[in-house]
Amino acid sequence: MSEPDLLQLRGISRHFGRFKALDEVSLTVKAGSRHAIIGPNGAGKSTLFSLISGTSAATAGSILVNGRDVTRLPVSRRVGLGVAATFQHSSLFLRETVLENVLLAVLRQASTRPGLWRPVNARRAAIDRARTFLEQVGLLARHDVSAAALSHGERRQLEVAVALATEPRLLLLDEPAAGMSPAETARLTELIVALPTDVTVLLIEHDLDLVFELADTVTVMHLGRHLTTGLPDEVRASAEVQTAYLGTMEVTS
Ligand code: ADP
Ligand code: MG
Q1: Cys-Cys crosslink for 28: which of 5, 76, 88, 92, Cβ 3.0 to 4.6 Å?
Q2: What dihedral angle (degrees, nearest 10) is formed by the CA atoms of 86, 216, 245, 248?
Q3: Whose alpha carbon is nearest atom 12 of ligand 1?
């Protein structure tokens, strides 16, 4: 039996005047998949993510999460429906500790579900929960340092922990390996592989080795349009894809 569609994009566009940053993109993401979006700079990948997370509005088309139309919903309501994003530009509280960063997200999430914990041990329970997410991303040993003291790679790990604290069904990762050392990239890959499959992952990534190691489905975008979606091997072999990338990015074979 095939998996249901967790995310459906139906002809979504984001036009700025006459400029089409995103133009009539349709795409489905299966529940549980590790789906990568690749494409040269300016292809519209980050714009696509902003429409899914709700940080910007589609000028046409519709977006369904679990069959529910979220096109007009604000970010907070989409988070409530399980859409979580980490952004290319970090949104951490740098002066707070690693644990505090995740704790804030856990408490925010708990506040959307009143009655989940008894007040007397609420903080203890929240701390335990925050620690679980830190363990999941491999940052527990760093829980008491300030976020500002983390390496670039560790910050990305922390962002994933913060996103996990919102109990996402769909996790959007925009170039998580950007600026990472090879060791940090390897660590991040392990982290994503180890995520439970009830978290569907949609990731934008320039590191094609990482893409072909992780992804079960690859979408290629070019100039604001959907070029192709397929199995990693099909996409890698596609002449159309090679042409789109020529001179901008290397597709290794
Ligand atoms: P990618 O993430 O694939 O590199 P983006 O989605 O960031 O591409 O951008 C796609 C195109 O849309 C780029 O040409 C970019 O300059 C343009 N763009 C993005 N945001 C805006 C905006 N707010 N106003 C005008 N143009 C924008
Ligand atoms: Mg981008």
Answers
A1: 5
A2: 30
A3: 21
- CATH superfamily to which 1-82+169-188+197-253 belongs: P-loop containing nucleotide triphosphate hydrolases (3.40.50.300)
Cβ of residue 39 lying under 6 Å from some atom of ligand 1: yes
Q: Name the residue with the closest Cα to ligand 1, atom 7.
A: 46
Token pair of 194, please?
């180890």
The domains of the chain are located at 1-82+169-188+197-253, 91-167
2 lines ligand 1 (CB under 6 A): no
Prediction pTM value? 0.89
pLDDT by residue, tens only, the chain of 253 residues: 567 899 999 999 999 999 999 999 999 999 999 999 999 999 999 999 999 999 999 999 999 999 999 999 999 899 989 999 886 556 799 999 999 999 999 998 888 776 665 666 788 899 999 999 999 899 999 999 999 999 988 998 999 999 999 889 999 999 988 888 898 889 889 989 989 889 999 999 988 889 989 999 999 999 999 999 999 999 988 877 777 776 454 444 4
Which residue among 14, 16, 53, 205 has the greatest number of ligand 1 atoms within 8 angstroms of its CB, and so is best to mutate?
16
Q: How far apart (Å, rounded) are the C-alpha atoms in residues 172 and 186?
A: 19
Q: How many residues does the chain have?
A: 253
Ligand 1 neighbour 21 (Cβ under 6 A): yes
Give the 3-state secondary structure of residue 216.
coil
Q: Please give the structure tokens belonging to residue 178.
A: 């950007």
